[in-house]
Amino acid sequence: MKVRVQYFARAREGAGTEGEELELAAGATLGNLWQKLLSAHPALKPLDGAVSFLVDTRYVREPDLLREGDTVFVLPPVSGG
Amino acid sequence: MKVRVQYFARAREGAGTEGEELELAAGATLGNLWQKLLSAHPALKPLDGAVSFLVDTRYVREPDLLREGDTVFVLPPVSGG
Amino acid sequence: MAILTRDVLDEAALRAKVEAPNCGAITSFSGVVRNHNEGRKVLRIEYEAAPPTLALLTELEKKTKEKFPVHQVFIAHRVGTLQVGEASVVIAVSSEHRGESFQACRWAIDTLKHTIPIWKKEYFEDGESDWVEGCKMHSLNENEEEHSHEPSGKSLHRHGR
Amino acid sequence: MAILTRDVLDEAALRAKVEAPNCGAITSFSGVVRNHNEGRKVLRIEYEAAPPTLALLTELEKKTKEKFPVHQVFIAHRVGTLQVGEASVVIAVSSEHRGESFQACRWAIDTLKHTIPIWKKEYFEDGESDWVEGCKMHSLNENEEEHSHEPSGKSLHRHGR
User: Fold this and answer.
1) Scanning A66, B74, C72, D148, which has its CA 20 to 30 A from the CA of C90?
2) pTM across the whole model
3) Could you report the predicted ipTM of this complex, rounded to two decimals?
Protein backbone atom coordinates (compact mmCIF):
# COMPACT_ATOMS: atom_id res chain seq x y z
CA MET A 1 0.00 0.00 0.00
CA LYS A 2 1.04 3.61 -0.57
CA VAL A 3 1.39 6.14 2.24
CA ARG A 4 2.55 9.71 2.08
CA VAL A 5 4.92 11.26 4.62
CA GLN A 6 5.24 14.98 5.39
CA TYR A 7 8.14 16.34 7.45
CA PHE A 8 8.26 19.52 9.53
CA ALA A 9 10.91 21.75 11.10
CA ARG A 10 13.98 19.74 12.22
CA ALA A 11 12.50 16.57 10.72
CA ARG A 12 12.36 18.24 7.30
CA GLU A 13 15.99 19.24 7.66
CA GLY A 14 16.92 15.70 8.77
CA ALA A 15 15.09 14.04 5.90
CA GLY A 16 16.30 16.63 3.41
CA THR A 17 12.85 16.79 1.86
CA GLU A 18 9.37 18.19 2.54
CA GLY A 19 7.77 14.81 2.03
CA GLU A 20 7.74 11.59 0.07
CA GLU A 21 5.57 8.66 -0.92
CA LEU A 22 6.42 5.14 0.26
CA GLU A 23 5.26 1.64 -0.59
CA LEU A 24 4.56 -0.44 2.55
CA ALA A 25 3.38 -4.01 3.03
CA ALA A 26 -0.31 -4.35 3.91
CA GLY A 27 -0.65 -4.46 7.71
CA ALA A 28 2.36 -2.19 8.26
CA THR A 29 2.35 -0.18 11.46
CA LEU A 30 3.52 3.34 12.08
CA GLY A 31 6.54 1.77 13.82
CA ASN A 32 7.44 -0.11 10.60
CA LEU A 33 7.22 3.13 8.64
CA TRP A 34 9.37 5.03 11.11
CA GLN A 35 12.12 2.36 11.05
CA LYS A 36 12.09 2.57 7.26
CA LEU A 37 12.40 6.37 7.41
CA LEU A 38 15.27 6.15 9.91
CA SER A 39 17.15 3.74 7.60
CA ALA A 40 16.60 5.95 4.59
CA HIS A 41 17.52 9.19 6.43
CA PRO A 42 20.09 8.56 9.19
CA ALA A 43 19.98 12.30 10.03
CA LEU A 44 16.53 11.65 11.54
CA LYS A 45 18.06 9.44 14.28
CA PRO A 46 18.43 12.26 16.87
CA LEU A 47 14.64 12.62 16.68
CA ASP A 48 13.96 8.95 17.46
CA GLY A 49 11.80 8.89 20.61
CA ALA A 50 11.19 12.65 20.49
CA VAL A 51 9.06 12.72 17.37
CA SER A 52 5.24 12.44 17.32
CA PHE A 53 2.91 11.52 14.47
CA LEU A 54 -0.50 12.61 13.24
CA VAL A 55 -2.63 11.15 10.44
CA ASP A 56 -4.92 14.06 9.66
CA THR A 57 -5.83 15.31 13.12
CA ARG A 58 -5.56 11.82 14.64
CA TYR A 59 -2.66 11.18 17.01
CA VAL A 60 -1.03 7.84 16.14
CA ARG A 61 1.50 5.69 18.00
CA GLU A 62 4.03 3.15 16.75
CA PRO A 63 1.82 0.04 17.17
CA ASP A 64 -1.04 1.64 15.18
CA LEU A 65 -1.81 0.22 11.73
CA LEU A 66 -1.52 2.43 8.69
CA ARG A 67 -3.99 2.42 5.83
CA GLU A 68 -3.63 2.89 2.08
CA GLY A 69 -3.60 6.59 1.27
CA ASP A 70 -2.76 7.83 4.79
CA THR A 71 -0.71 10.98 5.04
CA VAL A 72 1.58 10.77 8.06
CA PHE A 73 2.87 14.03 9.56
CA VAL A 74 6.30 13.62 11.19
CA LEU A 75 6.42 16.12 14.05
CA PRO A 76 9.58 16.95 16.01
CA PRO A 77 9.24 18.54 19.47
CA VAL A 78 6.83 21.45 19.17
CA SER A 79 7.35 25.06 20.23
CA GLY A 80 4.14 26.94 19.44
CA GLY A 81 2.71 29.79 21.48
CA MET B 1 -8.99 70.69 67.07
CA LYS B 2 -11.03 70.54 63.89
CA VAL B 3 -11.21 67.45 61.68
CA ARG B 4 -13.24 66.85 58.57
CA VAL B 5 -15.14 63.62 57.87
CA GLN B 6 -16.18 62.36 54.42
CA TYR B 7 -18.64 59.49 54.03
CA PHE B 8 -18.98 57.06 51.10
CA ALA B 9 -21.57 54.62 49.78
CA ARG B 10 -23.59 53.00 52.63
CA ALA B 11 -21.81 55.21 55.18
CA ARG B 12 -23.06 58.32 53.38
CA GLU B 13 -26.58 56.92 53.45
CA GLY B 14 -26.24 56.04 57.16
CA ALA B 15 -24.91 59.48 58.10
CA GLY B 16 -27.40 61.24 55.84
CA THR B 17 -24.66 63.59 54.64
CA GLU B 18 -21.61 63.65 52.35
CA GLY B 19 -19.43 64.97 55.12
CA GLU B 20 -19.11 67.24 58.12
CA GLU B 21 -16.61 69.10 60.27
CA LEU B 22 -16.16 68.16 63.95
CA GLU B 23 -14.44 69.69 66.93
CA LEU B 24 -12.37 67.13 68.90
CA ALA B 25 -10.21 67.40 72.02
CA ALA B 26 -6.48 67.56 71.34
CA GLY B 27 -5.08 64.00 71.53
CA ALA B 28 -8.29 62.43 70.24
CA THR B 29 -7.91 59.10 68.46
CA LEU B 30 -9.74 57.77 65.44
CA GLY B 31 -11.67 55.55 67.87
CA ASN B 32 -12.89 58.64 69.77
CA LEU B 33 -14.06 60.18 66.51
CA TRP B 34 -15.85 57.02 65.39
CA GLN B 35 -17.73 56.73 68.72
CA LYS B 36 -18.81 60.32 68.32
CA LEU B 37 -20.04 59.64 64.79
CA LEU B 38 -21.93 56.52 65.91
CA SER B 39 -23.70 58.56 68.63
CA ALA B 40 -24.59 61.33 66.21
CA HIS B 41 -25.76 58.93 63.46
CA PRO B 42 -27.22 55.70 64.91
CA ALA B 43 -27.84 54.48 61.33
CA LEU B 44 -24.06 53.99 61.06
CA LYS B 45 -24.15 51.24 63.73
CA PRO B 46 -24.50 48.32 61.26
CA LEU B 47 -21.13 49.42 59.85
CA ASP B 48 -19.34 49.29 63.22
CA GLY B 49 -16.46 46.84 62.81
CA ALA B 50 -16.89 46.63 59.04
CA VAL B 51 -15.81 50.16 58.23
CA SER B 52 -12.22 51.22 57.44
CA PHE B 53 -10.62 54.64 57.52
CA LEU B 54 -8.09 56.57 55.47
CA VAL B 55 -6.52 59.96 56.14
CA ASP B 56 -5.37 60.97 52.68
CA THR B 57 -3.88 57.72 51.37
CA ARG B 58 -2.81 56.61 54.87
CA TYR B 59 -4.66 53.68 56.42
CA VAL B 60 -5.56 54.52 60.03
CA ARG B 61 -6.83 52.35 62.90
CA GLU B 62 -8.87 53.21 65.99
CA PRO B 63 -5.90 53.76 68.37
CA ASP B 64 -4.23 56.19 65.94
CA LEU B 65 -4.09 59.86 66.92
CA LEU B 66 -5.79 62.43 64.73
CA ARG B 67 -4.29 65.82 63.91
CA GLU B 68 -5.77 69.25 63.39
CA GLY B 69 -6.98 69.57 59.80
CA ASP B 70 -7.11 65.84 59.03
CA THR B 71 -9.76 64.69 56.58
CA VAL B 72 -10.98 61.24 57.58
CA PHE B 73 -12.59 59.08 54.88
CA VAL B 74 -15.20 56.68 56.30
CA LEU B 75 -15.16 53.59 54.07
CA PRO B 76 -17.76 50.82 54.26
CA PRO B 77 -16.88 47.37 52.80
CA VAL B 78 -15.47 47.93 49.31
CA SER B 79 -16.59 46.34 46.04
CA GLY B 80 -14.32 47.68 43.30
CA GLY B 81 -13.16 45.75 40.29
CA MET C 1 0.64 55.42 36.94
CA ALA C 2 -2.92 54.10 37.10
CA ILE C 3 -5.98 55.65 35.45
CA LEU C 4 -9.32 56.48 37.11
CA THR C 5 -11.83 57.81 34.62
CA ARG C 6 -15.51 58.26 33.79
CA ASP C 7 -14.79 57.45 30.14
CA VAL C 8 -15.12 54.10 28.38
CA LEU C 9 -11.92 52.08 28.90
CA ASP C 10 -10.02 51.51 25.66
CA GLU C 11 -8.69 48.08 26.49
CA ALA C 12 -6.33 47.80 23.52
CA ALA C 13 -4.69 51.15 24.31
CA LEU C 14 -4.37 50.23 27.97
CA ARG C 15 -2.83 46.86 27.13
CA ALA C 16 -0.36 48.52 24.75
CA LYS C 17 1.04 50.51 27.68
CA VAL C 18 2.78 47.42 29.12
CA GLU C 19 4.39 46.20 25.87
CA ALA C 20 8.18 46.01 25.79
CA PRO C 21 10.68 44.30 23.47
CA ASN C 22 12.14 42.18 26.29
CA CYS C 23 8.72 40.72 27.21
CA GLY C 24 7.35 37.46 25.84
CA ALA C 25 4.03 37.49 27.67
CA ILE C 26 1.16 39.86 28.36
CA THR C 27 -1.76 38.82 30.53
CA SER C 28 -4.70 41.14 30.81
CA PHE C 29 -7.88 40.99 32.83
CA SER C 30 -11.09 42.94 32.31
CA GLY C 31 -13.88 43.10 34.83
CA VAL C 32 -17.14 43.60 32.95
CA VAL C 33 -20.66 44.56 34.08
CA ARG C 34 -22.79 41.39 34.10
CA ASN C 35 -26.51 41.32 33.32
CA HIS C 36 -27.26 39.40 36.51
CA ASN C 37 -26.14 39.00 40.11
CA GLU C 38 -27.42 36.57 42.73
CA GLY C 39 -30.46 35.73 40.65
CA ARG C 40 -31.53 39.29 39.81
CA LYS C 41 -31.39 41.02 36.44
CA VAL C 42 -28.97 43.95 36.49
CA LEU C 43 -29.52 46.88 34.13
CA ARG C 44 -26.50 49.04 35.04
CA ILE C 45 -24.02 49.68 37.82
CA GLU C 46 -22.86 52.92 39.37
CA TYR C 47 -19.28 53.01 40.59
CA GLU C 48 -18.13 55.48 43.21
CA ALA C 49 -14.53 56.03 44.33
CA ALA C 50 -13.07 57.87 47.34
CA PRO C 51 -10.43 60.56 46.62
CA PRO C 52 -7.40 58.39 47.55
CA THR C 53 -8.31 55.82 44.88
CA LEU C 54 -5.98 56.94 42.09
CA ALA C 55 -2.98 57.09 44.44
CA LEU C 56 -3.83 53.66 45.89
CA LEU C 57 -4.25 52.07 42.44
CA THR C 58 -0.83 53.46 41.50
CA GLU C 59 0.58 52.01 44.73
CA LEU C 60 -1.00 48.66 43.84
CA GLU C 61 0.80 48.73 40.47
CA LYS C 62 4.06 49.32 42.32
CA LYS C 63 3.44 46.56 44.89
CA THR C 64 2.62 44.09 42.14
CA LYS C 65 5.93 44.85 40.42
CA GLU C 66 7.77 44.44 43.72
CA LYS C 67 6.12 41.13 44.48
CA PHE C 68 6.46 39.43 41.06
CA PRO C 69 9.32 39.45 38.52
CA VAL C 70 7.27 41.26 35.90
CA HIS C 71 8.20 44.11 33.60
CA GLN C 72 5.20 46.42 33.71
CA VAL C 73 1.82 46.57 35.46
CA PHE C 74 -0.99 48.86 34.43
CA ILE C 75 -4.38 49.35 36.11
CA ALA C 76 -7.34 51.40 34.90
CA HIS C 77 -10.63 51.68 36.77
CA ARG C 78 -13.79 53.37 35.62
CA VAL C 79 -16.33 55.24 37.76
CA GLY C 80 -19.82 56.59 37.10
CA THR C 81 -22.65 54.73 35.37
CA LEU C 82 -21.67 51.59 33.44
CA GLN C 83 -23.94 49.59 31.14
CA VAL C 84 -23.97 45.80 30.87
CA GLY C 85 -20.94 44.61 28.90
CA GLU C 86 -18.79 47.64 29.71
CA ALA C 87 -15.46 47.14 31.45
CA SER C 88 -15.12 48.54 34.95
CA VAL C 89 -11.48 47.58 35.40
CA VAL C 90 -8.58 46.56 33.17
CA ILE C 91 -5.29 45.18 34.49
CA ALA C 92 -2.45 44.42 32.09
CA VAL C 93 0.88 42.83 33.03
CA SER C 94 3.90 42.12 30.86
CA SER C 95 6.73 39.74 31.75
CA GLU C 96 9.53 37.77 30.20
CA HIS C 97 7.77 34.42 30.71
CA ARG C 98 4.09 33.70 30.96
CA GLY C 99 3.77 32.29 34.49
CA GLU C 100 4.67 35.54 36.20
CA SER C 101 2.26 37.68 34.20
CA PHE C 102 -0.64 35.33 35.02
CA GLN C 103 0.22 35.26 38.73
CA ALA C 104 0.79 38.99 39.01
CA CYS C 105 -2.41 39.88 37.11
CA ARG C 106 -4.45 37.55 39.29
CA TRP C 107 -2.88 38.88 42.48
CA ALA C 108 -3.49 42.49 41.42
CA ILE C 109 -7.22 42.02 40.77
CA ASP C 110 -7.69 39.93 43.93
CA THR C 111 -5.86 42.56 46.00
CA LEU C 112 -7.69 45.47 44.35
CA LYS C 113 -10.98 44.00 45.54
CA HIS C 114 -10.14 44.50 49.22
CA THR C 115 -7.69 47.40 49.30
CA ILE C 116 -9.16 50.09 47.02
CA PRO C 117 -12.01 52.38 48.18
CA ILE C 118 -14.47 51.83 45.35
CA TRP C 119 -18.13 50.83 45.67
CA LYS C 120 -20.72 49.66 43.20
CA LYS C 121 -24.48 49.98 43.33
CA GLU C 122 -26.52 47.68 41.14
CA TYR C 123 -29.71 48.91 39.46
CA PHE C 124 -32.16 46.07 38.88
CA GLU C 125 -34.88 45.48 36.31
CA ASP C 126 -37.59 45.91 38.95
CA GLY C 127 -36.51 49.50 39.64
CA GLU C 128 -34.71 48.70 42.91
CA SER C 129 -31.05 49.31 43.57
CA ASP C 130 -28.54 48.18 46.16
CA TRP C 131 -24.88 48.39 47.10
CA VAL C 132 -22.99 45.21 46.32
CA GLU C 133 -21.91 43.51 49.54
CA GLY C 134 -18.18 44.08 49.74
CA CYS C 135 -15.08 43.15 51.71
CA LYS C 136 -13.74 45.13 54.65
CA MET C 137 -11.04 47.36 53.20
CA HIS C 138 -7.47 46.51 54.20
CA SER C 139 -4.24 48.38 53.85
CA LEU C 140 -2.08 47.43 50.87
CA ASN C 141 0.86 47.40 53.26
CA GLU C 142 -0.73 45.04 55.72
CA ASN C 143 0.66 41.55 56.13
CA GLU C 144 -1.29 39.51 53.61
CA GLU C 145 -1.82 36.73 56.15
CA GLU C 146 -4.20 39.04 58.00
CA HIS C 147 -6.54 39.48 55.05
CA SER C 148 -9.89 37.81 55.20
CA HIS C 149 -11.39 37.37 51.76
CA GLU C 150 -14.76 36.57 53.24
CA PRO C 151 -17.57 39.11 53.36
CA SER C 152 -17.08 41.31 56.40
CA GLY C 153 -18.58 39.96 59.60
CA LYS C 154 -18.28 36.29 58.71
CA SER C 155 -14.75 36.12 60.07
CA LEU C 156 -16.23 36.32 63.58
CA HIS C 157 -17.67 32.87 63.03
CA ARG C 158 -14.44 31.29 61.87
CA HIS C 159 -12.64 28.88 64.11
CA GLY C 160 -9.90 26.29 63.71
CA ARG C 161 -7.90 26.35 60.50
CA MET D 1 -13.48 28.27 15.92
CA ALA D 2 -9.79 29.19 16.17
CA ILE D 3 -7.81 31.37 13.76
CA LEU D 4 -4.48 30.52 12.12
CA THR D 5 -3.18 33.39 10.03
CA ARG D 6 -0.12 35.08 8.51
CA ASP D 7 -1.60 38.50 9.31
CA VAL D 8 -0.93 40.68 12.34
CA LEU D 9 -3.23 39.60 15.21
CA ASP D 10 -5.76 42.30 16.13
CA GLU D 11 -5.88 41.58 19.83
CA ALA D 12 -8.83 43.87 20.61
CA ALA D 13 -10.98 42.29 17.91
CA LEU D 14 -10.02 38.80 19.05
CA ARG D 15 -10.81 39.62 22.66
CA ALA D 16 -14.18 41.08 21.65
CA LYS D 17 -15.17 37.66 20.27
CA VAL D 18 -15.60 36.23 23.77
CA GLU D 19 -17.68 39.06 25.24
CA ALA D 20 -21.16 38.21 26.48
CA PRO D 21 -23.69 40.01 28.71
CA ASN D 22 -23.70 37.20 31.29
CA CYS D 23 -19.91 37.36 31.77
CA GLY D 24 -18.20 39.43 34.44
CA ALA D 25 -14.61 38.51 33.58
CA ILE D 26 -12.37 38.29 30.53
CA THR D 27 -8.81 37.09 30.82
CA SER D 28 -6.59 37.28 27.79
CA PHE D 29 -3.05 36.17 27.16
CA SER D 30 -0.72 37.26 24.36
CA GLY D 31 2.54 35.54 23.56
CA VAL D 32 4.89 38.11 22.08
CA VAL D 33 8.23 37.80 20.22
CA ARG D 34 11.00 38.72 22.68
CA ASN D 35 14.24 40.44 21.67
CA HIS D 36 16.33 37.81 23.46
CA ASN D 37 16.39 34.13 24.34
CA GLU D 38 18.92 32.24 26.43
CA GLY D 39 21.37 35.12 26.31
CA ARG D 40 21.21 35.74 22.54
CA LYS D 41 19.72 38.74 20.76
CA VAL D 42 16.74 37.70 18.63
CA LEU D 43 15.83 39.75 15.53
CA ARG D 44 12.76 37.85 14.35
CA ILE D 45 11.07 34.45 14.58
CA GLU D 46 9.60 32.27 11.87
CA TYR D 47 6.61 30.18 12.84
CA GLU D 48 5.66 27.06 10.90
CA ALA D 49 2.49 25.00 11.43
CA ALA D 50 1.52 21.51 10.22
CA PRO D 51 -1.81 21.19 8.35
CA PRO D 52 -3.81 19.78 11.31
CA THR D 53 -3.06 22.91 13.40
CA LEU D 54 -6.27 24.85 12.84
CA ALA D 55 -8.44 21.82 13.66
CA LEU D 56 -6.38 21.06 16.77
CA LEU D 57 -6.54 24.67 18.00
CA THR D 58 -10.33 24.53 17.59
CA GLU D 59 -10.36 21.24 19.53
CA LEU D 60 -8.29 22.92 22.25
CA GLU D 61 -10.91 25.68 22.53
CA LYS D 62 -13.57 22.98 22.97
CA LYS D 63 -11.55 21.02 25.56
CA THR D 64 -10.95 24.17 27.56
CA LYS D 65 -14.68 24.88 27.67
CA GLU D 66 -15.37 21.30 28.75
CA LYS D 67 -12.78 21.42 31.50
CA PHE D 68 -13.62 24.80 33.04
CA PRO D 69 -16.98 26.51 33.72
CA VAL D 70 -16.27 29.32 31.28
CA HIS D 71 -18.50 30.93 28.69
CA GLN D 72 -16.30 31.31 25.63
CA VAL D 73 -12.72 30.48 24.64
CA PHE D 74 -10.99 31.89 21.59
CA ILE D 75 -7.51 31.10 20.29
CA ALA D 76 -5.63 32.77 17.42
CA HIS D 77 -2.12 31.78 16.33
CA ARG D 78 0.04 33.49 13.77
CA VAL D 79 2.52 31.85 11.37
CA GLY D 80 5.23 33.23 9.07
CA THR D 81 7.82 35.85 9.98
CA LEU D 82 7.19 37.83 13.17
CA GLN D 83 9.15 40.85 14.35
CA VAL D 84 10.07 41.58 17.97
CA GLY D 85 7.01 42.84 19.85
CA GLU D 86 4.48 41.14 17.59
CA ALA D 87 2.00 38.68 19.09
CA SER D 88 2.33 35.05 18.00
CA VAL D 89 -0.69 33.82 19.95
CA VAL D 90 -3.73 35.34 21.63
CA ILE D 91 -6.05 33.40 23.94
CA ALA D 92 -9.17 35.07 25.34
CA VAL D 93 -11.57 33.51 27.84
CA SER D 94 -14.80 34.91 29.26
CA SER D 95 -16.55 33.64 32.36
CA GLU D 96 -19.06 34.66 34.97
CA HIS D 97 -16.45 35.01 37.72
CA ARG D 98 -12.77 35.81 37.38
CA GLY D 99 -11.14 32.68 38.81
CA GLU D 100 -12.31 30.40 36.04
CA SER D 101 -11.20 32.68 33.20
CA PHE D 102 -7.69 32.92 34.70
CA GLN D 103 -7.43 29.15 35.19
CA ALA D 104 -8.82 28.27 31.78
CA CYS D 105 -6.64 30.80 29.94
CA ARG D 106 -3.54 29.53 31.72
CA TRP D 107 -4.43 25.89 31.04
CA ALA D 108 -5.09 26.62 27.36
CA ILE D 109 -1.71 28.26 26.73
CA ASP D 110 0.15 25.60 28.76
CA THR D 111 -1.64 22.82 26.85
CA LEU D 112 -1.14 24.52 23.46
CA LYS D 113 2.60 24.41 24.01
CA HIS D 114 2.74 20.60 23.96
CA THR D 115 -0.24 19.54 21.85
CA ILE D 116 -0.21 21.79 18.75
CA PRO D 117 2.17 21.09 15.82
CA ILE D 118 3.80 24.52 15.53
CA TRP D 119 7.53 25.27 15.48
CA LYS D 120 9.53 28.44 15.77
CA LYS D 121 12.96 29.23 14.42
CA GLU D 122 14.82 32.15 15.94
CA TYR D 123 17.00 34.43 13.80
CA PHE D 124 19.83 35.96 15.81
CA GLU D 125 21.75 39.19 15.51
CA ASP D 126 24.93 37.29 14.46
CA GLY D 127 23.20 35.90 11.36
CA GLU D 128 22.65 32.41 12.78
CA SER D 129 19.27 30.78 13.25
CA ASP D 130 17.98 27.78 15.14
CA TRP D 131 14.80 25.93 16.00
CA VAL D 132 13.63 26.58 19.55
CA GLU D 133 13.98 23.43 21.62
CA GLY D 134 10.44 22.22 22.14
CA CYS D 135 8.35 19.64 23.98
CA LYS D 136 7.43 16.24 22.60
CA MET D 137 3.96 16.66 21.15
CA HIS D 138 1.14 14.91 23.01
CA SER D 139 -2.41 14.18 22.09
CA LEU D 140 -5.00 16.60 23.46
CA ASN D 141 -7.04 13.56 24.45
CA GLU D 142 -4.28 11.89 26.36
CA ASN D 143 -4.56 11.55 30.12
CA GLU D 144 -2.91 14.70 31.41
CA GLU D 145 -1.02 12.72 34.03
CA GLU D 146 1.11 11.25 31.26
CA HIS D 147 2.38 14.59 30.04
CA SER D 148 5.97 15.47 30.65
CA HIS D 149 6.53 19.21 30.51
CA GLU D 150 10.27 18.73 30.35
CA PRO D 151 12.21 19.08 27.13
CA SER D 152 11.99 15.81 25.23
CA GLY D 153 14.66 13.27 26.04
CA LYS D 154 15.21 14.43 29.60
CA SER D 155 12.42 12.23 30.88
CA LEU D 156 14.64 9.19 30.22
CA HIS D 157 16.92 10.43 32.94
CA ARG D 158 14.20 10.96 35.53
CA HIS D 159 13.99 8.66 38.49
CA GLY D 160 12.29 8.73 41.86
CA ARG D 161 9.81 11.54 42.53
Assistant:
1) B74
2) 0.91
3) 0.91
